[in-house]
Specification:
- The protein has about 220 residues and is an alpha/beta fold.
- About 35% of the residues lie in helices and about 25% in strands.
- The protein is built from seven helices and ten strands.
- Helix 6 links the parallel strand 7 and strand 8.
- Helix 3 packs across helix 4 and helix 4 crosses helix 5.
- It is globular.
- The structure holds adenosine-5'-diphosphate (ADP) (2 copies).
- One adenosine-5'-diphosphate binds next to loops.
- GO terms for molecular function: ATP binding; ATP hydrolysis activity.
- Belongs to the ABC transporter superfamily.
- Keywords: ATP-binding, Nucleotide-binding, Transport.
Length: about 220
């Protein structure tokens, strides 16, 4: 069963800044919108959940196992689109994805087919031979999602994916994530409420490093 459990998770940066404090959450398949203003601790928490940073307090369990003890078990099932995702502008989308698949040590035999599937899923198949330097911001973000899907992840973490996109690209991106959810757990961080109000089954709202709300959008509206 796809399940990510956070138990009193905290993160303190070297130098002393407490960016995340006592966050408890239990998440299953579907889209979870992680909302909060700049500085709320969203990126820090996402780095912890993607094993790039290790919680300094509490623990994170993936399918019941502590990710600090077995990070590889989570990494094998993780797709991650960081906020600062960059592309090699001289490569085509097809070349870039094949390169990343090799870096992620996908079996060589499977690479070409999987690259085509991922290009198809994000709607870039017809322009896959164009150089990435000529792509729009929205197209680049779709390349970012495509690379996150290469290993067919059960957990997809996307950090502020719609920053810099125009409204049409943003809408398209929302539809794409909704299509991808299915049996996956998708965690999407944003400070733009409209990115997730329609698609997220659950919301988690952070402020000042703490979790201030977790529940459905309906419950949030009812309690507001
Ligand atoms: P976000 O857009 O998620 O709020 P920030 O603008 O806070 O990100 O941070 C951008 C980058 O600078 C990140 O890589 C973050 O780790 C780093 N950073 C942010 N605040 C500090 C800080 N006080 N000291 C050192 N690095 C920081
Ligand atoms: P958000 O993603 O919600 O904007 P962040 O997780 O980027 O929030 O930042 C949470 C807090 O941690 C902020 O106060 C930020 O300045 C601080 N911070 C982020 N990165 C670093 C860092 N590398 N070193 C020290 N403080 C940081």
């Amino acid at each position: 069963m796809v399940e990510l459990a956070l138990e009193s998770v905290g993160y303190r940066y070297r130098g002393g800044h407490q960016a995340v404090t006592d966050v408890g959450l239990r998440l299953g398949p579907g889209i979870v919108g992680l909302l909060g203003p700049n500085g709320a601790g969203k990126s820090t928490l996402m780095r912890v959940l993607s094993t790039l940073a290790r919680a300094t307090a509490g623990r994170v369990l993936w399918r019941g196992e502590d990710i600090a003890r077995r990070p590889d078990a989570l990494r094998a099932e993780l797709g991650y689109l960081p906020q600062d995702f960059g592309v090699y502008e001289a490569l085509s989308a097809r070349e870039f994805l094949a390169f990343l698949a090799a870096v992620k040590s996908l079996p060589a035999r499977a690479v070409a087919g999987r690259v085509e599937e991922c290009l198809e899923m994000v709607g870039l198949h017809d322009v896959a031979d164009r150089r990435l330097g000529d792509y729009s911001g929205g197209m680049r973000q779709r390349v970012g999602i495509a690379q996150a899907l290469l290993n067919d992840p059960s957990l997809l973490i996307v950090d502020e994916p719609t920053v810099g996109l125009d409204p049409e690209e943003r809408l398209r991106f929302r539809h794409l994530l909704a299509e991808l959810a299915g049996q996956r757990l998708v965690i999407l961080s944003t400070h733009i409420v409209s990115d997730i109000e329609a698609s997220a089954g659950e919301l988690a709202i952070m402020a000042g490093g703490q979790l201030r709300f977790h529940g459905t959008p309906e419950v949030l509206i009812a309690t507001a």
